[in-house]
Design a protein that fits this description.
About 50% of the residues lie in helices and about 15% in strands. The protein is α/β, with parallel strands linked by helices. It has one domain: Rossmann fold. The structure holds NADP nicotinamide-adenine-dinucleotide phosphate.
């Protein structure tokens, strides 16, 4: 197995799958985390191995701290180190603010923001000990500008930005960087399950670069933030949104 190790949460589909494959091409052994889509995670790993990469799949609900701790212990057992953590796992929901239930709110917070908290807190003692590491958190443009009918989603994505900026300051003395990527509209299951075709076409028109992004657009940005070339970049939010914001 490769010596360098990256964990990508929510890597069974969409953006996470593309990030996992790209980091494998960059020489990282990759832990392909999934929650429910085991077959898809296996396909991602197959693609990684076919391209000469290494890694394994790991089932873990990022909102469950015991699950997350188990994933970190397993990674350390397999690779002896964790160089990069990409907090990508996430859920979305379209609802009027007045229709959001307390359960909707709790689930949004516990998966999208609690997941980032769990994974960062679980991996950091190891990274601090090594005085090295890179954390990349996937936020959203809606975390900066807000989206109608996605108040809970926008709130947690804004929370990820605040968490990242604060954590970047706290971990900088240990040479650990923490950055966010704020994707625009990216063609994945999340987009197509929440929005109809007309809305997606309208969003493409409103994007200055005139198209919906691809998971690979985000993967390339993540690979840069995971590379030595980004050693002096921390606490930043990199918009990968075709000029939307
Ligand atoms: P997606 O296609 O719906 O994929 C979501 C991924 O997250 C899946 O791999 C899913 O795993 C995983 N996941 C969900 N809940 C999980 C949990 N509790 N524990 C572990 N994994 C979990 O979504 P995507 O579009 O690729 O989105 C990836 C990230 O980008 C999310 O954080 C999203 O908010 C953000 N983002 C997306 C867009 C966009 O336009 N697509 C824009 C801005 C930001 P299983 O299938 O295995 O359950």
């Amino acid at each position: 197995m490769s010596n360098k190790c990256a964990i990508v949460t929510g890597a069974s589909r969409g953006i996470g799958a593309a990030v996992a494959k790209e980091l494998a091409l960059c020489g990282f052994g990759v832990i392909v985390n999934y929650n429910t889509s085991q077959d898809k995670a296996e396909s991602v790993l197959e693609a990684i191995v076919k391209n000469g990469g290494t890694g394994y799949i790991y089932k873990c609900d990022v909102s469950n701290r015991d699950d997350v701790d188990g994933m970190i212990v397993s990674a350390l057992k397999q690779f002896g180190r964790i160089d990069v953590l990409v907090n990508n796992a996430g859920i979305a929901q379209q609802k009027l603010f007045t229709d959001i239930t307390c359960d909707d709110w709790s689930r949004m917070v516990s998966v999208n923001l609690g997941g980032v908290f769990n994974c960062c807190q679980s991996v950091l003692p190891h990274m601090i000990h090594r005085k090295s590491g890179k954390i990349i958190n996937i936020s959203s443009i809606w975390g900066s500008v807000g989206a109608s009918c996605e108040v809970h989603y926008s709130a947690v994505k804004a929370g990820i930005i605040g968490l990242s900026k604060a954590l970047a300051k706290e971990t900088a003395p240990s040479h650990i960087t923490v950055n966010c990527i704020a994707p625009g509209c990216i063609m994945t299951d999340m987009l197509t399950s929440e929005l109809d075709n007309d809305t997606i076409n309208q969003l493409a028109k409103e994007t200055p670069l005139g198209r919906i992004g691809t998971p690979n657009d985000i993967a390339k940005a993540a690979a840069f933030l995971a590379s030595d070339g980004a050693d002096f970049i921390t606490g930043q939010v990199l918009g990968v949104d075709g000029g939307f914001c």
